[in-house]
């Protein structure tokens, strides 16, 4: 019969073995990409992995390559540093993060200002930040890394070693498709271009974007959930960004990113207009590409209803550098002097779109055996439109 001492030793040994197995599995499979990210030069991470950590480590070890940093959410992922350099001659790193929010933006701005020789921070506001000022509770890959916050790296590493091994097992059994970032931080979206080309027959791509937009049209008649608190919290974080940039002599340039026409509708509220105005009052001149324009009305400029293609980003850079834009309304420099007028004009444009929506329908069509009823629509543009920037990709 085994003695109590032997039982205790055996029990502790079993626990130790289990811990070693769990930690080894999480370290070698590394389902979040945490350990692979530590050298800062591992770029082969997908959106289900901890790219926030990879970007923090890259900045830590390779900041001597860059003069400026783009900070933003997933919409900023397509902005090409090689194109951004046309703004000012600086070498850029694209520090976009998945589900970006102002809590992230302020943390990375502070980290960059205090740990690099940055001359400039370019901040992209996608408007969706007004949903949540902090999205760290969405999961491990949405938390701000210890490298950025200054918290214990050791505790963080142990936390990732002790994650539920189920994730590692699932990763072994069903490896994800990896869509890596490029070395200077931007997304590789070649698969989205391939998807567009594969769906050109019978207007499939048009229908794909149209179907994905249904969720937005309801906001013509109902308010987005209460975002007043998020607006105020986001502005406080924006003030932090401005203050840390001023303190370290880092230029801050802010712009509002383009949205697909249907997605714009959900944000057309007094809260958003107030946010725009207060952003301009705080930061001075701000470029706005979230405009009522043909670019927004062309589905082929977007790889899904929430994200624009790189050609749209390149056009934004051209406009910001003073090149003439062939599309009326795309890109407006907001100033403290004109912001009131711009908001009033925006409200009028919104009412015109709403009137069009109420009077026009998109014909019924079949997809995968399902029959869709006719739906109201905006004056969306076709593939052959001059506003289709991806036509020659």
Description:
There is one protein chain. By secondary structure, this protein is an alpha/beta fold. The chain contains 16 helices and twelve strands. It has helices spanning 4-29, 51-62, 81-84, 102-115, 146-149, 153-161, 166-173, 190-198, 204-211, 214-217, 228-247, 261-264, 270-283, 294-297, 310-320, 339-359; strands spanning 68-72, 92-96, 120-125, 251-256, 286-288, 302-304, 307-308, 332-334, 361-362, 365-367, 370-372, 375-376. The strands form four sheets. It has a six-stranded mixed beta sheet with strand order 2-1-3-4-5-8. Strands 6-7 form a two-stranded antiparallel sheet. Helix 4 runs parallel beside helix 11. It is globular. It starts with a helix and ends in a 17-residue tail after the last strand.
């Amino acid at each position: 019969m085994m003695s109590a001492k032997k039982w205790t030793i055996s029990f502790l040994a079993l626990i130790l073995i289990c811990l070693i197995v769990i930690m080894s599995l999480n370290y070698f499979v590394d389902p979040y990409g945490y350990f692979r990210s530590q050298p800062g030069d591992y770029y082969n991470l997908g959106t289900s992995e901890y790219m926030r950590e990879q970007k923090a480590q890259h900045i830590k070890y390779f900041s001597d390559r860059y003069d400026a940093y783009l900070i933003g959410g997933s919409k900023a992922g397509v902005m090409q540093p090689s194109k951004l350099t046309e703004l000012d001659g600086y070498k850029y790193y694209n520090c976009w993060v998945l589900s970006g929010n102002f809590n992230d933006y302020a943390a990375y701005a502070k980290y960059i200002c205090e740990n690099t020789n940055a001359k400039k921070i370019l901040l992209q506001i996608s408007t969706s930040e007004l949903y949540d000022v902090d999205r760290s509770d969405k999961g491990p890959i949405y938390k701000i890394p210890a490298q950025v916050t200054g918290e214990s790296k050791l505790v963080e590493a142990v936390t990732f070693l002790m994650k539920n091994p189920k994730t590692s097992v699932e990763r072994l059994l069903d490896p994800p498709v990896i869509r890596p970032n490029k070395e200077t931080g931007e997304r590789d979206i070649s698969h989205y271009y391939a998807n567009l080309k594969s769906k050109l027959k019978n207007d499939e791509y048009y229908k794909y974007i149209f179907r994905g937009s249904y969720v937005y049209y309801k906001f013509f008649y109902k308010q987005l959930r209460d975002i007043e608190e998020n607006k105020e919290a986001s502005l406080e974080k924006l003030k932090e960004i401005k203050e840390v940039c001023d303190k370290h002599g880092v230029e801050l340039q802010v712009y509002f990113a383009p949205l697909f026409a249907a997605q714009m509708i959900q944000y057309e509220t007094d809260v958003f207009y107030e946010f725009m105005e207060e952003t301009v009052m705080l930061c001075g001149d701000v470029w706005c590409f979230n405009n009522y324009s043909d670019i927004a009305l062309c589905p082929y400029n977007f790889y899904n209803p929430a994200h624009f293609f790189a050609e749209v980003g390149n056009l934004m850079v051209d406009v910001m550098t003073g090149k003439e834009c062939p599309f009326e309304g795309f890109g407006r420099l907001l100033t403290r002097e004109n912001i009131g007028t711009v908001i009033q004009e925006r409200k009028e444009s919104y009412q015109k779109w709403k009137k069009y929506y109420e009077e026009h329908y998109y014909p019924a069509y079949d997809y995968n055996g399902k029959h869709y009823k006719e739906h109201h629509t905006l004056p969306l543009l076709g593939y052959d439109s001059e506003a289709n920037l991806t036509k020659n990709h």
